[in-house]
Amino acid sequence: YYSVQIKMTVKTSVTDIFRGTFPQLFAAVSGTLFAISDGMTVGWTAPMIPYLISEESHIKTTRHEAEWLETALLVGAFCGLPTTMFFTERIGRKKSLLLASFIVLFAWLAIALGNNMIYIFVAR
């Protein structure tokens, strides 16, 4: 039997910690926000449709348009699936997720700033 003693000294600086931790933290927060956005996208119409068809709404909406607003998300998902597959194969998963996150950001901005149902339909 041999007895071996090992002495290790690890020097870490603040930049070393942030060099490894910050990208992981950013990726985790981004992924979480993307998941939250998916839930908001599906559930957004439940409280908004009664508001949009009411007299208080700043965007005049008919009941027929409100019904299509529910369906627009499914139509967009159906049309977006081949596009998603194309970009995933062409540019990779990471860049596809980054592209999708910017598209989702612009869609939420269009919903927030839109003053017409057409903006909301396009965003959905």
TrEMBL record:
Pfam families: Sugar_tr (PF00083). It is a multi-pass membrane protein. GO terms for cellular component: membrane. The chain crosses the membrane at residues 66-87, 99-122. The keyword Transmembrane applies. Coiled coil: none annotated. This is Major facilitator superfamily (MFS) profile domain-containing protein. It comes from Anoplophora glabripennis (Asian longhorn beetle). The lineage of its organism: Eukaryota, Metazoa, Ecdysozoa, Arthropoda, Hexapoda.
